Amino acid sequence: MLIGEVARRCGISARMLRHYDSLGLVRPTGRTDGGYREYSSEDIRRIFHIESLRSLGLSLREVGCALDDPGFKPSELVDDLIRQTRERVAAEMELLTRLRRIGAAGPADWEGVLQVVALLQGLGSESAGKRQRAALSSVQEVPVPVEALVEAALSEPDPIVAGALRWALAHSGDGALPLLAEGLGSPVADVRKRAVQSIAEIAHDEATALLQDALANPDIVVRRCAALALGARGVADAVPTLIDMIVEEANDADAADALSTLASRPPLADQIATGLVGCLAHGTLEPSARLRLTQALADIPGATASRALSDLSHDEDRAVALTAAYVLGIRDAR
């Protein structure tokens, strides 16, 4: 079969067939009397093999090596191509994300584009100092898309940089909240913790609602962080979790402070005191837990707390009894 007919049947140009010949990929097995290339059925089958491998993304050099290697293993080739394709797709997605973020920032001119690019690079820098400066600059100088700030905040391991990023998010408006809410459902515990910490620093009603929902989160760290934030905002829903934190000695000092803040509202003081007394009624509590609950009662005003302290001043545990008596003495002196 002559080159023109082969080109028509195989769907490639005669020029490409000549190129294959020059590379040694497909050399026609015969020549006509006039010296024209003449391809056999085996040559044509090799051409189809070449085109099939090229469609998978192989270069002509790689195609030649694959066809001429007697030890060639298709499975290894496919695995390698999958790896390369994934790397290429990841790189392209990263570029697409960067371009979208630059577009979302709305730079007015080329200088603005360069500033946004520099900040995005800063947020992804290996240097903690550069990441921190980028976070601060995103509020003070060039606005960075909130999506980029959220991604940085949820992945930031350095506590100082994380604080700067949370501050930046708190000043970015409420656009970050839906993205942070997604972070609360992350399979990664650190991401869930960073998400609730970031939400806790945003002073919006929607943020408060998210924190209230977080009290039912399966992650106990998320629940406790949400409770502390809600206690500072005067939300009574946090009381049970805060009391549990005191019992379990988990940020118990902060939990007691939050309860004290909540108890400044008279309707909540008795509720909190009742909750603390209810825990003390459990005979299985360790003396150290009873002492922490007694200390927490010290900052709760009202008759319910005073009666509980009076009872505790006769507690069988000496440390509990002395603490309760001391607190009562101070309360009586006021």
From TrEMBL:
InterPro entries listed in its UniProt record: ARM-like (IPR011989), ARM-type_fold (IPR016024), DNA-bd_dom_put_sf (IPR009061), MerR-type_HTH_dom (IPR000551), MerR_fam (IPR047057), PBS_lyase_HEAT (IPR004155)
Listed Gene3D superfamilies: 1.10.1660.10, Leucine-rich Repeat Variant
PROSITE patterns, per database record: HTH_MERR_1, HTH_MERR_2
HTH merR-type domain boundaries: 1-69
Secretion signal span: none
Keywords from the named record: DNA-binding
Protein name: HEAT repeat domain-containing protein
Lineage: Bacteria, Bacillati, Actinomycetota, Actinomycetes, Kitasatosporales
